[in-house]
Inverse folding.
DNA sequence: TGGTTTGTTGACCGTTTTAGTCAATAAAGG
DNA sequence: CCTTTATTGACTAAAACGGTCAACAAACCA
């Protein structure tokens, strides 16, 4: 029932980008350092984020990565979903056909409710909200 | 973000016991067959359930395992918690000291909300309710 | 043009976790 | 004492996971 490091790191990366929204590309190296993520690992993390159009990358001098949408429009649900593959606590919730007992299994119904509950929380949080929460904790100082 | 097989099997085992509440011990072998769980695996599953007093075991002829409390009093939360170790989606929610950034990390706050949401669902379901749901799906026929 | 900066990709590795098995043991019943 | 049944511990195979390395590609700059 643990979230993968991919998803945890991924949200932190996007939070970092959201904090610097509007300031142009941020270096992977800097993100790695600020968020304490191994750089080579980070390099792989961003792949899916680019592919789905959440961030864009810029190469060469003064390059880096940056958000494609304003923080207000990026919801945590899609991010976790993307990096985690699925937020369902069991396979059969997303793919009933993987278990022959799916249609009559009452425990499956519970796992489905769990998935919904998780989804509700994650759909209700945007990067913008994370930024605001962070600013409240830290004060404006980065 | 997947539930372990331990937890999935475990709830099915308890459901099976709840369905036969009041009928005396049920053979591990029968449970294994009905719920399609490998018997040797099942043998290990029950260990923690016995230890925490959710079920009791009886050896020898006409032995097996049985619930210690009525199904109404067994809540899914404690079962999953027990078999899963924890329902927190990240370590730092249960043990803030495992991450130095815990007190200032806003993503951690979100994971905490996720944990609460999962907990709320699981605390709201008892074995008795699973039994009733199952009877509704199947009719009274086992 | 060529070199430097930066992201991109794919192959690879070591560890841990997980699901599952096997076999030896212990208790209860008949 | 023999059979039935649960208990325990050692063990294994496979997958997942976190992480690294190195070769490559694009953008920029001089």
């Amino acid at each position: 029932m643990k979230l993968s490091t991919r998803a945890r790191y991924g949200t932190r990366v996007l939070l970092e980008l959201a904090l610097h929204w509007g300031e142009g590309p941020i270096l992977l190296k800097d993100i790695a350092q600020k968020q304490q993520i191994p750089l080579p690992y980070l390099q792989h993390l961003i792949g899916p984020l680019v592919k789905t159009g959440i961030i864009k990358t810029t190469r060469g001098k003064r390059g880096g990565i940056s958000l494609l949408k304003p923080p207000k429009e990026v919801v945590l649900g899609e991010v976790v979903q993307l990096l985690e593959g699925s937020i369902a606590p069991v396979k059969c919730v997303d793919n009933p056909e993987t278990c022959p007992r799916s249609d009559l299994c009452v425990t499956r119904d519970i796992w489905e409710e769990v998935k919904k509950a998780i989804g509700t929380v994650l759909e209700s949080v945007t990067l913008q909200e994370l930024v605001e929460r962070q600013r409240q904790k830290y004060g404006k100082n980065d």
